[in-house]
Design goal:
This protein is of the alpha+beta class and 211 residues long. It is 24% helix and 41% strand. It contains five helices and ten strands, in the order E-H-E-E-E-E-E-H-E-H-E-E-E-H-H. It has helices at 24-33, 95-106, 120-128, 174-184, 194-202; strands spanning 14-20, 44-53, 56-64, 67-77, 80-90, 93-94, 117-118, 133-147, 150-159, 162-171. The strands form two sheets. It has an eight-stranded antiparallel β-barrel, surrounded by five helices. Strands 6-7 form a two-stranded antiparallel ribbon.
């Protein structure tokens, strides 16, 4: 199997990610152990909206730059998670896609859809009208690294304004992730994905973070 390249399309990856208040020591080690990565990935910033459902932990939905991306949980192995793309769409979005793909992914009752297509604002109105769904603003400031041929990052994340730090390692090769976790010093932490992190911040899930 060839080396994994940052930014390249690959087979579905396994991932370890965690969230907490401070990972300074692990971040320092990740930076020192990192190989060279493209300059465009040194630092990235984005503003996103996550749509979370109290009835579903298997599908992770986010909206960025007017585009919707839904990933679905596939499997867990050695404490690592694998997610696959389930749906990609762009606003305005068709009624058919909302009926067949989007709202079924939330596992909630279908709202009355009377139009052929919906803008982002119209979609968010429907989301906010459902007490099982929440639209959550997530701002990200991410710094990319490459350790043991795994794609890594350290990020500052603001979830509805609440700041957390995240650190991760992902690859198609599980052994490389496990080695990176140990080398960096994050192997003792819980694997917490973005969907879980958002739900914990807004109180939809009553669990703590890694620290």
């Amino acid at each position: 199997m060839g080396k994994l390249e940052v930014g390249a399309i690959s087979d579905p990856r396994f991932e370890f990610r965690t969230f907490g208040r401070n990972f300074d020591e692990a971040s320092f080690r990740m930076g020192r152990l990192s190989g060279i990565i493209p300059e465009k990935l040194w630092e990235r910033r984005s503003e996103e909206i996550y749509i979370v459902s109290s009835t579903n932990d298997k599908n992770n939905t986010k909206i960025r730059n007017g585009k919707m991306d839904i990933k679905t949980f596939v499997t867990e192995k050695d404490g690592l998670e694998q997610w696959n793309p389930l749906m990609k769409g762009e606003f305005p979005i068709s009624r058919e896609v909302l009926e067949k793909e989007v709202f079924p992914a939330f596992a909630v009752d279908m709202p009355a859809l009377t139009k052929d297509s919906y803008t982002l604002d119209e979609f968010l109105i429907m989301v906010r009208a459902n007490n099982l769904l929440k639209a959550v603003k997530v701002e990200k400031q991410r710094y990319g690294y490459m350790v043991n041929d795994t794609i890594c990052e350290v990020g500052n994340v603001w979830i509805n304004g609440a700041k957390l730090v995240t650190i991760n390692s992902e690859s198609t090769v599980i052994a490389d992730i496990l080695k990176t976790m140990k080398d960096v010093g994050i192997d003792k932490f819980e694997n917490i994905n973005y969907l879980q992190a958002v739900k914990r911040v807004i109180g939809m899930i009553d669990k703590p973070f890694a620290n």
